[in-house]
Amino acid sequence: MENSIRIAEVLLPLALAQAYSYAIPDGMVLAPGDFVEVPMGPRSYLGCVWEVNQSFGTNMKLRAVTRRCDAPPLSETHRKFIEWLSAYYLEPKGNVLRMVMRVPAALDEPVLQKALVLGEVTPAKLTPQRARVLEVAAQGFAMRPSELAQAAGVGASVVKALAAQGALKEVGLPPHAKFQEPDLNAGAFTLNKDQVIAAEALRQMVAQRGGKVALLDGVTGSGKTEVYFEAMAAALAAGKQVLLLLPEIALTAPFLARVERRFGCAPAQWHSDLRPRERERVWRGIATGDARIVVGARSSLFLPWINLGLIVVDEEHENAYKQDEGVPYHARDMAVLYGNLGKFPVVLSSATPSLESLMNVDRGRYLLVKLKDRHGRPELPETRLINMVVEKLEPGQWLSPELVAATAHTLASGDQALLFLNRRGFAPLTLCRACGHRLNCPDCTASMVEHRFRKILQCHHCGHQEGVPQACPSCGEAGKLTPVGPGIERLAEEAMRLFPDARMAILSSDLSRGENLRDTLRGIEDGDFNLILGTQLVAKGHHFPQLTLVGVVDADLALESSDPRAGERTWALLAQVAGRSGRGEKPGRALVQTYLADHPLMKALARGDRDAYLDGEKRIREMAGLPPAGRLAGIVISGKDSGETLRFARDVAHAAPPAEGIKVLGPAPAPLAMIRGRHRIRLLVKAGREVNLQAFLSAWLKDIKPKGSLALQLDVDPYNFL
Ligand code: ADP
Ligand code: ZN
């Protein structure tokens, strides 16, 4: 069969829906999943072999695969995962592959680092400096030349001269530290009765190896983490890799330390802050199977898993699992998909589960595993509403007398208090008292937010910054610009006035990040601070044992919006914040300032009756056909010219094929009608759950090609309606 050639269909990590054909050169052995380098146009690209075929044609002028990379092949499950995700979100396969191939350097064998050990030759002249170097080298560790020089306290030239004579000899050192093997019994607690039952249910799921999903539902502090650790231990014992997904914000040092204590080894981490070297190490460790435990943000799903046996999605209700930019996907949903494809269980954990997951329990698709009590304590903290309609506060004052008194009392008794306001900056709005002009972002439909600590005005949508003007840019009057409403910095001013002796910590994403944030969190845990002011940064995951009072300054902030999940989100946030209180020895309480004290959500919150609230919420969604009772897809059409954008949006809407059970709403200007100078128009597709939404969308959109500055972004199962 002399004319037969072997052809590799290679998918490239580019916005391409299809793989391209390349000839496999003689002597090269390729299989699906292999990473290869191929030419395209004048360049060469790294890609992944999707298929290998035999062809008998002779007139094919295919370019050939240049080389096979050294990385282990992408598993069949992972390739299926890419296919499914691409089909679900109507995203070119190449774009999904790009998320897997984010670390191209990891595809090739790591370059060994140059290191030195003792050689066979005795140096001609043994100076004291040389003797010191040889003494260090004689300890038997391979060291980099600079390390060796440093350890011996000599200059680099001494080491170099010894190496040149052969008194030191060069060896290659692997550039990455090894991953440690977990010790499954390292730090296990003795579980209480409820926890034992829950852990057993999860362990059984792991043993069965089906693609089952469990919802682990229990109030904050009930021991969900300890329980899912048991499921992880079971999967690890079976030789599998495990992935623990966290919202990025919850990936804190104390949490990682807790995982390390439990499993006797540092887990691999995966998040946006990693250094390139660590990225390579983890990517490769996952591909080879050496990394067994990964704690990571949503993008960890795309790591090249070779032997994954369990995914735990902690805080599964979190919106942070939804990616809006690039390929829009929901990591919780995709974790469930992955488990299905890979035939391994997925555990979703939350104190405030999403309606999506609760409805899947109702439908019998997910197993409900419930933890009733807070470990060693009966309930959530006592929660009281403060009706702000009847409180008459002075202008510029945001804390009610009751909250002030409770805070003072808490501080006096040596405990910690947390005041929560989910708004960054000093004031959300700045108005001119003379002419009413409002300081807006020049490029967005949004007001500029004053950040007084940093002495700037900032747009929270595009990041645009300006200095704070002295005079009104509209009428020119000086000294009339007035901040309106509170942000966390303004609250800090008030708190400093009221509690001058308090040791205050302010936690807000623009004030504290990275190391700085970690220090502050540690300081809070150690009791260096007793009054904590925070935005949603403090709501999640932290364990502050001395905290006994949580004051919510404005509980209504997120409640009134057109987002169908606004109520659900508010509930989750408030319950999480309240749950920070009373996690240690002493009981805690929460005071919630609201202008909507009669709202069903607030009433249920005060009673601690989550199920009553959720039942009401479920009924609303069912009546309105909104998710999870129905399905949505959002389309944002944007462009530089407002008229052109609107015309294009109308054309798109017009092209929608008729379909039963599907409604296309809009076009209408988006609530954020302009971002970064781009005009935005929204369409919303609403469908029943039984409808094949993807088929409808692809039939509709396949021939629509935005031109010039126009863009169309499709968002299947949207979480953002701005
Ligand atoms: P959740 O994840 O539900 O918020 P955690 O697992 O973080 O709850 O548990 C809350 C606290 O109680 C943690 O400090 C944890 O170490 C402790 N804890 C939970 N279960 C036990 C147990 N069985 N024995 C001892 N301490 C426990
Ligand atoms: Zn802006």
Question: Brief description of this entry?
Answer:
The protein is an alpha/beta fold and 722 residues long.
Detailed description of the structure:
By secondary structure, the protein is an alpha/beta fold. The strands form 8 sheets. Strands 10-11-9-12-15-8-16 form a 7-stranded parallel β-sheet, sandwiched between helices. The chain has a 6-stranded parallel β-sheet with strand order 17-27-26-18-25-24, sandwiched between helices. The mean pLDDT is 92. The relative contact order is 0.08. It contains 19 helices and 31 strands. It has 5 domains: 4-79 and 97-101, GIY-YIG endonuclease; 113-173; 193-371, P-loop containing nucleotide triphosphate hydrolases (Rossmann fold, 3-Layer(aba) Sandwich); 382-423 and 486-619, Rossmann fold (3-Layer(aba) Sandwich), CATH 3.40.50; 630-716, 2-Layer Sandwich (Alpha-Beta Plaits). α1 (76-89) packs across α10 (331-342). Adenosine-5'-diphosphate binds at residues 189-192, 195, 218, 220-226, 375, 543. Residues 189-192, 195, 218, 220-226, 375, 543 line the site of adenosine-5'-diphosphate.
Strands, helices and their partners?
Blueprint: E1 5-11, E2 20-23, E3 35-40, E4 43-55, E5 67-68, H1 76-89, H2 93-100, E6 113-118, H3 128-137, H4 145-152, H5 156-165, E7 168-173, H6 193-208, E8 213-218, H7 224-237, E9 241-245, H8 253-263, E10 268-270, H9 276-288, E11 293-296, E12 308-314, E13 322-323, E14 329-330, H10 331-342, E15 346-350, H11 355-362, E16 367-371, E17 382-387, H12 401-412, E18 416-420, E19 429-432, E20 449-451, E21 456-458, E22 465-466, E23 481-484, H13 488-498, E24 504-507, H14 514-525, E25 531-534, E26 547-552, H15 566-578, E27 589-594, H16 600-607, H17 610-624, E28 630-639, H18 642-654, E29 662-675, E30 678-688, H19 693-701, E31 711-716
Parallel strand pairs: 8-15, 8-16, 9-11, 9-12, 10-11, 12-15, 17-27, 18-25, 18-26, 24-25, 26-27
Antiparallel strand pairs: 1-2, 1-4, 3-4, 3-5, 6-7, 13-14, 19-23, 20-21, 21-22, 28-30, 28-31, 29-30
Helix pairs in contact: 1-2, 1-10, 3-4, 4-5, 6-7, 16-17
The structure holds adenosine-5'-diphosphate and zinc ion.
